[in-house]
Design a protein that fits this description.
The chain has two domains: about 40 residues; about 100 residues, Ribbon (Cystine Knot Cytokines, subunit B). The protein has four helices and four strands.
Length: about 150
């Protein structure tokens, strides 16, 4: 009886102890969930994702002289050449994994087989420039507009 009426005698009851544990648990779980959503943690998570994405397929840009593109155009004009870089290891599917095992054990000739997806343009931009004879030239499908893991 004294345990049930402990608040009257100065002793805490089992029910009161259970309630205090429940309140502490709620408080700690609330603090944990809010700390996960804090701006600092969001920023850290975003930075981790950026670090990972630097390995993945992405679009990069470089200013180039048209002449340096190696397509036979005589022009000193500078164009923005966009290209795809990165790996696609995270995009591998069961097909890629099985094909790698089969090429490694010699069941399939690895002569011309790619066992993983590659980072390639999925859309292109047309590039226009003026050549050395002051004529406008247009090259289709030269510069990447979007990159993705293909294969």
């Amino acid at each position: 009886m004294a345990a049930l009426y402990g608040h009257q005698t100065g002793n805490s009851s089992m029910a009161e102890e259970g309630e205090s544990h429940r309140i502490r648990w709620q408080r700690s779980s609330t603090n944990t969930s809010t700390s996960r959503k804090s701006p600092r943690n969001r920023k850290e998570r975003r930075n981790r994702q950026r670090g990972r994405s630097s390995q993945d397929c992405r679009l990069e840009k470089k200013e180039m002289k048209v002449r340096d593109l190696g397509l036979g155009y005589d022009s000193d004009e500078i164009v923005l050449f966009k290209y795809c870089v990165g790996t696609c290891m995270s995009a591998r599917k069961n097909y890629d994994l099985a094909l790698k095992v089969l090429t490694d054990n010699g069941s399939v000739s690895s002569r011309k087989v790619s066992t993983h997806p590659c980072c390639r343009p999925t859309r292109f931009e047309t590039v226009s420039f003026m050549d050395a004879q002051t004529s406008w030239q247009t090259i289709k499908w030269l510069s990447a507009a979007n990159c993705s893991c293909v294969g």
